[in-house]
Amino acid sequence: MPKDAPPNGSAWPDQVPLGPGRRVSEMQAKLHRWAAADPGRRFEDLFNFVHDPATLQVAFDRVAGNRGGRTAGVDGVTAADVQERIGLSGFLDDLRTQLKTGAFRPLPVRERLIPKPGRAGKVRRLGIPVIADRVVQAALKLVLEPIFEAGFLPVSYGFRPRRRAQDAIAEIQHMGTHGYRWVLDADIAACFDDIDHAALMDRVRDRIKDKKVLALIKAFLKAGIMTELGERQDTPAGTPQGGIISPLLANIALSVLDEHLHGPWRPGGVFSSPKRRTTLRAKGAATWRIVRYADDFVVLVNGSEEHVHQVREKIAQVLAPMGLRLSSAKTRIVHMSEGFDFLGFHIQWRRKRGTNTWHVYTFIAKDPIRRLKAKIRALTRKTSPLNLDALLAQLNRVMGGWAFYFQHAIAKRVFANLDAFTWWRLARLLRQRHRWSWKEFRRRHTTPTGRWLPFSANGVTWRGIEKIPVTRYRYRGARIPSPWVQPAH
């Protein structure tokens, strides 16, 4: 599940510790402030920020701290190898020298095909860059993200700081409650593979004037792919999933969609006030709102089904110059009373039990439940080689992370059912492993008063998810704060 932003309401540190992190944070705050103050400004002299020692140090720390840092690219080198065998100081100095002299050249990314859950024969193609390329991409992102974030619109939530999937779901629920009940549930076909490089670079040039930075971005786009069969392939289009800078580039490309559909909501636009929206609808026109998470998005329409078809045609026209198209298999028009799935949630407008009032409710979709059960079955199969303590710890991690993602949906009964499912799987595993009868198993796992004891081993206890609090997520709208506030000295 997505993990690109912290949970709703979590605390952020007011101050950044002294050192490279503080220096980079101050640089980002200035860039963001300048970009927000002058939307038409094109930035020069950014390349010095990219190869600054502090930027490269912070970039490497982020690469090494990411789980992907343990995965090697085509050169077979991991982040741990850099620290233990090559030496971090020498590695960063050499990388900085290559950037300054213009000798740096990205290597092809290593292709890895990942099966798509629940879709037999379908795979997702990931590209794994070498560690040096990942560090440079992370440095580029540190410099570019504050600039482009100043222009990104609040209806986009994927791969953006301090934003998460729950914010997108909360906006859908909020707009559905206020009459937006026709839904274009859309998906862009092979978005990361098909983005037109020329169109993308044109949008980057709208804000970036530094030729060295532009050349570096283009070099990563054209780096190529080393397939699993060891064949080199060119990349005439797209930005391979797996690259650190790829989500930012995808958001830059797809912001054209946000700007087109959200434009009427801007100050002075035809949707900018409740009175204007009401007047439009009284004349038979429709109003709409896009909610986007990376290449998955929905358009909520307050109007008729015919209006949704018209919006769909507009979207196809906007995406075409970027080399993109809507997926015919995954794009559909539904009324919110039918319900639809988005980011793992099932959203539906339905009557409240025992009343005649209707509300928009958020449930857990069937696919995430089915996939979690499959993971639990794999962990608790009778032939599992894991010791009980390791097994329980793994279950706590898998189930806990899943439940915290979905804890803002109507999930209490689902959590209880999953706990019961897991309990019986563990009971079956232990009985098989120790050849216990039901009577012997019950004797070992109950108190003298007959109460069941929790499964535990070597200090590790299976916690389950039923007791995780289910709370409503607060709709934050445009109130999500920027992460680039000038640090206090």
Automatic annotation (TrEMBL):
CDD domains: RT_G2_intron (cd01651). Keywords: Nucleotidyltransferase, RNA-directed DNA polymerase, Transferase. InterPro entries: DNA/RNA_pol_sf (IPR043502), Group_II_RT_mat (IPR030931), GrpII_Intron_Splice-Mob/Def (IPR051083), Mat_intron_G2 (IPR013597), RT_dom (IPR000477). GO terms for molecular function: RNA-directed DNA polymerase activity. Residues 95-347 form the Reverse transcriptase domain. Residues 1-20 are annotated as: Disordered. The gene is ltrA. Its EC number is 2.7.7.49. PANTHER family: NUCLEAR INTRON MATURASE 1, MITOCHONDRIAL-RELATED, PROTEIN YKFC. It comes from Spongiactinospora rosea. It is an enzyme of class 2 (transferase). This is Group II intron reverse transcriptase/maturase.
